[in-house]
Amino acid sequence: MNLERIVITGVGVAAPNGNDLKEFRHSLLNGKSGLSFTEVRHMGTWAAGLCKFDETKHQNRKMRKRGTRAGAISIYCASEALADSGIDLTARDKDRVGIYIGITEHGNVETENEIHELYQNNLDTDLWSHHHNPRTVANNAAGETSLALGITGPAYTIGAACAAGNMGLIHALQMLRLGEIDLAIAGGISESPQTFGIFAAFKAQGALGHDADATKATKPLDKSRNGIAIAEGGALYTIERYDDAIARGAKIYGEIVGYHVNSDATDFVLPNPTRQSQCMAKAMKMAGLGPDEIDIVNMHATGTNAGDVQECQAVREVFGNSKNTLINATKGFIGHAMGAAGALELAGNLPSFEDGLVHPCHNIMELDPECAIDGLVINEPVKKEVRVILNNSFGMLGINSSLIIKKV
């Protein structure tokens, strides 16, 4: 494989507390939560991270009506990333542009809605939408994006549970190095709060966060944490070869210098800290970096009791002796955006290269002693020169991913 340098040149964000990177970053630095109460079918009111972007900014109403919320998030983020990068697709060979979007699950929303309508209408299957199949196929988000943007290169999704956001970027890097494409749109998206099933499932697991104040429904690493807040959103990036970016005078957010993906092979849900620490260590080995050279570690930190403790054990094992590394987490602000989580959390930290600030964890009122790690940034941003970010994203069925971005 050609080991050409691969860089990020554009970012498109739809977050519960920001509709672009600037707004999202401002929210993270200023303690603005994206969580609010919403009515969940069959379940009553629960806190969730819902986005408020303009669904028809980059697609017409007819296409949105035919498509999905996942597609709308993807089209918005992809279009914003392209605009941010200064890339004009009309001047590109669209066969050489790839779309790689990480997802957790897809099709639940449309299937639940169709079944709901079925039961409101005496189980009359003639009312079942003829758009159901294209709405529910797993590649829907990437497919809708290719339709909206006229991209004729490879466009598909990557199912990797909550590690999927990182996986989208990793796959884009690999395809660029293989010479399959010349430009990638990659990252992760989620429409999860639109389905009641995910709320019901996490509630059944005893892992659905709750509080009288919606903004405090999830409290990763806090002693009183009681679960996750389900969120939607997305972060998609334009990814290209360093030489191509330099040739066109592009703004470069950072270079992908290391990554690793592995599996626990131990449990359906509970993470394996040994495998997580190995994932981080092997990503650093690929990047040729030691723990003291990592400036920020963004933890997955979901807000579940066991998950947070296990991940803290893994991070402590790798970075426990580092005098340089600061550690933060993002889900206290926005909830758990599932397949979008890793990509969104990376976006929240990327501006650190320029503004020299590390955003804090949110909603830690009393740190759980089992989650104590040297370098943890709590409540207020910390000033620091940042040159390297390690972004963790882990998922159910034991999928782990670590991605390392370096300032150029």
User: Helicity, in percent?
Assistant: 25-40%
Sheet having the most strands: 10 strands, mixed
Q: What is the terminal-to-terminal distance?
A: 22 Å
Give me the number of helical elements.
Answer: 14
What proportion strand?
Answer: 15-25%
Helix/strand layout:
Blueprint: E1 6-14, H1 21-29, E2 35-40, E3 44-49, H2 61-66, H3 69-85, E4 97-103, H4 108-120, H5 132-136, H6 140-149, E5 155-159, H7 164-177, E6 183-190, H8 196-204, E7 230-231, E8 233-241, H9 242-247, E9 254-263, H10 273-287, E10 296-299, H11 305-319, E11 326-329, H12 331-334, H13 341-349, H14 352-355, E12 357-358, E13 382-383, E14 388-395, E15 399-406
Parallel strand pairs: 3-7, 4-5, 4-6, 10-11, 10-14
Antiparallel strand pairs: 1-8, 1-9, 2-3, 6-8, 9-15, 12-13, 14-15
Brief account:
By secondary structure, the protein is of the alpha/beta class. Helix content is 33%, strand content 22%.
Can you characterise this structure?
By secondary structure, the chain is of the alpha/beta class. The protein folds into two domains: 242 residues, Peroxisomal Thiolase, Chain A, domain 1; 150 residues, 3-Layer(aba) Sandwich (Peroxisomal Thiolase, Chain A, domain 1). It has 14 helices and 15 strands. Strands 5-4-6-8-1-9-15-14-10-11 form a ten-stranded mixed β-sheet, with helices on both faces. The longest helix has 17 residues. The chain is globular and about 65 Å long. The chain starts with 5 loop residues before the first strand and ends with a strand.
